[in-house]
Amino acid sequence: MEAIILAGGLGTRLRSIVPKLPKALAPVGNRPFLAYLFDFWIAQGVDRFVLSVGYKHEIIQKEFGVSYKSAKVDYAVETAPLGTGGGLLLSWKKLRSPEPFLILNGDTFFNVNRADILDHHSTCEADMTLSLVEVSGNSRYSGALLDERGFIRSLKKRSEASESNWANGGVYLMEPNLLSEYENHHLEKCSLEDELLPDLLKKEKRVAGFISQGNFIDIGLPEDYRRAEEILSQHHN
Predict the structure, then answer these.
(1) CATH number of the domain at 2-235, please?
(2) What is the pTM of this model?
């Protein structure tokens, strides 16, 4: 299985703590955060990663090269910031498999079971499945409103998300051809959460919500970064 990791952000929220590294390489214990993501998903059967990179991408490429343990690693390098949506579209062009693929935020860890999200995706006959984490008083993350069948009815931007108890967990499963109509947009900056996903919903694509009870960490937040080592050590193989 293939996975795209969105790791092209500038990491401005974490720069006071990790000033010289891209956010995905922020040290957790004595290892870069990205290594924990690799380990977690390789253990669940991912054998090829495409990293969407931009800011200080050379450091990431030098750290991991073209393989990590049993998995191949490729890179889609942004020459200018493209946002999460533009980075996804650039990376999508490097996928090789006709099977559904994962999209992972490079600055969050969410303990989602791959077999379970695949089963949910298949049962729902979804075009895309979005992992959801339960939060209270959400104003920090994009929120999701679900219909009675468990499909996402609408997405709320961070400033509007307090009415939803389900936040975007940053793990997505997508059918390989879903982005075909956007293939000429890969040089345009756009947001996956605030532009691309709402457009897919507007076009009545089947976007399912998958609720997971696993640990969730956003290392872009200094308080989460400080507790990351304790939580991620539980998942270190």
Answers:
(1) 3.90.550.10
(2) 0.92
